[in-house]
Structure to design on (305 residues):
């Protein structure tokens, strides 16, 4: 593994290794044991979109690994003024040991990884959010004691989160049901790729428009914002279309009694989820947010160590 760009590119064994390492680094951190696996190494962090969790967890994670995180806002680097991705890659590889990037076009991340001789980590594109789903799998494993055979329901927009969830479930053998409004289903190309993963693991993939069908007997219920970064102009229209997909108490009641509620955050209460669900006893959103730190440390230690 040179880069971490899509869960579809990883093998099940590679993901299992990352999860195992994430869990052991978490334990060591809780026990106050240092693990300077990246002593003297520097991670460049390119952001062309906002972030709370990703920025803080990568910076803290790199520090805990004994390395140095370098925040590179696109407003401040020449990439934002039109320098090519190729030149940026060739220059940054001379200084850095790894690059983390959050941006709009997924093709920009692929281009950066193609030309940079150092690891590139995808910290969210319009297409995928693999770091989030690795942390989510860790969180599910910690709460349920297994991954294989669980039913994962995703309700809402067929966006970057839905795409990475499909890849994650397909690789690790969770049955996955996705309900979106008409016209907002996950991209065909991602569904086709995911189907290969589901075929291999033997788990099932259902993509439908009925949230009740998707959530029925689910072990995990997941939603995300209806208005992703870059879609702000569509906000009013999206809220109208997505309202029937709100994860509220009535809808959540169709899941298993011990179902967990998850959300990558940031969340918008009374839109995609109501407070009684996201702030209720089944919600594990802050364990999930914490695990961004541990899962990404595992990614960085594996790629840059
Ligand atoms: N979930 C997530 O990626 O959060 P941020 O946008 O705050 O990084
Ligand atoms: N789908 C959301 C995820 C945020 C972490 C977005 O892309 O804005």
């Amino acid at each position: 593994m040179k880069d971490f760009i899509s869960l579809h590119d990883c093998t099940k064994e590679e993901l299992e290794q990352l999860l195992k390492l994430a869990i052991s680094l978490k334990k060591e951190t809780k026990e106050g044991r240092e693990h300077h696996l990246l002593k003297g190494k520097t991670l460049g962090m390119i952001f062309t979109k906002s972030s709370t969790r990703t920025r803080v967890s990568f910076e803290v994670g790199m520090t805990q690994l004994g390395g140095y995180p370098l925040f590179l806002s696109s407003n401040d680097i020449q990439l934002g003024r039109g320098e090519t991705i190729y030149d940026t890659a060739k220059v940054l590889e001379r200084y850095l040991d790894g690059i983390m990037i959050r941006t709009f076009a997924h093709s920009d991340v692929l281009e950066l990884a193609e030309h940079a001789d150092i690891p590139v980590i995808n910290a969210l594109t319009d297409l995928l959010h693999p770091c989030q789903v690795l942390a989510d799998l860790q969180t599910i494993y910690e709460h349920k004691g297994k991954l294989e055979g669980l039913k994962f329901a995703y309700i809402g927009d067929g966006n970057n989160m839905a795409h990475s969830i499909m890849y994650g479930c397909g690789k690790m053998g969770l049955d996955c049901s996705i309900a979106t409004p008409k016209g907002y289903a996950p991209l065909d190309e991602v569904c086709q790729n995911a189907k290969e993963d589901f075929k291999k693991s033997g788990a099932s993939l259902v993509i439908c428009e009925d949230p009740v069908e998707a959530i029925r007997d689910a072990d995990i219920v997941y939603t995300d914002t209806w208005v992703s970064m870059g879609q702000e102009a569509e906000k009013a229209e999206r809220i109208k279309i997505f309202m029937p997909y709100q994860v509220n108490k009535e809808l959540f009641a169709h899941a298993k009694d011990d179902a967990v509620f998850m959300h990558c955050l940031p969340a918008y209460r009374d839109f995609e989820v109501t407070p009684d669900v996201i702030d209720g006893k089944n919600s594990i959103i802050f364990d999930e947010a914490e695990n961004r730190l541990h899962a990404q440390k595992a990614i960085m230690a594996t790629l840059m160590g």
